[in-house]
Amino acid sequence: MDNVAQLAKRAATDLHQRDGKDDTNSKFDSDRTMIRLALYQPDIAANAGTILRLGACLGVPVHIIHPAGFGLSDRTLRRAGMDYLDRAERVEHTDWAAFEKWLEKDGGRLVALTTRGETRLPDFAFRPNDILLLGRESAGLPDPVMVGADARLRIPLKTGTRSLNVAVAAGIATAEALRQTGGFSA
Has residue 27 been placed in a domain? Predict the structure, then answer.
């Protein structure tokens, strides 16, 4: 498929998926029974591209909650996402309120990853419909968003270290969630 056709297909798909309002029988209808990732107002394109690549490789849909600190064009994400962007299941929400509305209908459990989490990642029991929420690289998750989460997890780190790159944290948490729920592909 040439670039023009790919861009047209992406634009049509994105229109249907904006704010999770896709009422067609798309590939997103099945995401209620699988682990999902949600990026809260991402501000580094390379990390978002890496997380979209992670989602494509592991079969995990990625929800992006706007505003983002960069344009979500293929050009800005291509370096880290490489040729996996076309395979990524991506849903965009215009803002936190739109995501909350979608979440209420979805019924999944919102699991925030934060350095301020009360529960250690290895001590948490994941469910197949959990949504792993990751914050902004520059500021994490704001308190009003964290309060709304069903659980707040932290990845245990060596004393004297602050945090991991958000894409690395997404990979660690997603792998653990998929391991626990039997969600890894063949």
Answer: no
**What are the structure tokens assigned to 159, written together?**
């004393």
Domain count for the chain, please give it.
1
Q: How far apart are CA 67 and CA 124, in angstroms?
A: 30
Beta-carbon contacts of 102 under 8 Å, excluding residues fewer than 6 positions away, are: 19, 20, 63, 93
For the chain, 186 residues long, give each residue's pLDDT as a single digit of tens: 343 333 333 433 443 344 444 433 334 444 446 999 999 999 988 899 999 999 999 999 999 999 988 776 656 666 554 567 778 899 999 999 999 999 999 999 999 999 999 999 999 999 999 999 999 998 999 999 999 999 999 999 999 998 899 999 999 999 999 999 999 875
82 found inside a domain:
yes
CATH of the domain at 85: 3.40.1280.10
- Whether 86 is in a domain gets the answer yes
C-alpha atoms less than 13 angstroms from C-alpha of 66 in its C-beta half-sphere = 14
For residue 76, is it within any domain? yes
Question: What is the greatest pairwise CA distance in the chain?
Answer: 50
